[in-house]
TrEMBL record:
Localization (cell): Cell membrane
InterPro entries given in the database record: sCache_2 (IPR033480)
Single Cache domain segment(s): 10-111
Topology in membrane: Multi-pass membrane protein
Pfam annotation, one family: sCache_2
Domain of life: Bacteria
Key words of the record: Cell membrane, Kinase, Membrane, Signal, Transferase, Transmembrane, Transmembrane helix
Single GO MF descriptor: kinase activity
Protein name as catalogued: Histidine kinase
Signal peptide boundaries: 1-28
Gene Ontology CC annotations of this record: plasma membrane
Length: 160
């Protein structure tokens, strides 16, 4: 009977170590993504930088990668209330009107954000967007604030 108990104990230890290793790996993967709280903090940091340094310098800093406003999968975007992109991690989007841009489900997410900004000063928005880190379309939770008639935003991608 003793060898059977020893085998069970060894098996139990192996299972415990496997579960612990899996949990640590999952935790490390979660840490590689920005959180909604970090996205909100990045927007506030961007607005503070904009206030201290002016529009031209701030917009130039927001698009630098690597830069102080790009962290893992977090990055700042800035739009006019009319939907013109002034800052984005994707340089192809800067300078274009994005009101007709749709997400993976057909949602006009820029239009929705600008309509919300016309009525309020800040908020959260859910949509799907291309994650520049893993190159996949993923659900995203975007925090935005209106300042100086511009909409500053950053979003956290949700794990699939």
């Amino acid at each position: 009977m003793r060898p059977v108990n020893a085998i069970r104990n060894v098996f139990a230890l192996v299972v415990m170590f496997a579960v612990a290793a899996f949990a640590l790996q999952a935790r490390a993967q979660d840490h590689s993504r920005g959180s909604p709280a970090e996205a909100q903090a990045m927007v506030k940091k961007a607005i503070e930088f904009y206030q201290k340094n002016g529009r031209e310098k701030a917009l130039a800093e927001f698009v630098k990668k690597p830069g102080p406003f790009v962290d893992r999968d977090l990055y700042v975007t800035v739009y006019t209330l009319q939907g013109d992109s002034l800052a984005h991690i994707n340089p192809k989007m800067v300078g274009k009107n994005m009101m007709e841009l749709r997400d993976g489900d057909g949602k006009y997410h820029i239009r929705e954000r600008m309509e919300s900004a016309a009525k309020g000063t800040s908020g959260w928005q859910d949509f799907k967007f291309f994650n520049p880190v893993n190159k996949q379309i993923e659900p995203k939770q975007m925090y935005w604030e209106k300042h100086d008639n511009l909409v500053f935003a950053a979003g956290a991608y949700k794990p699939l």
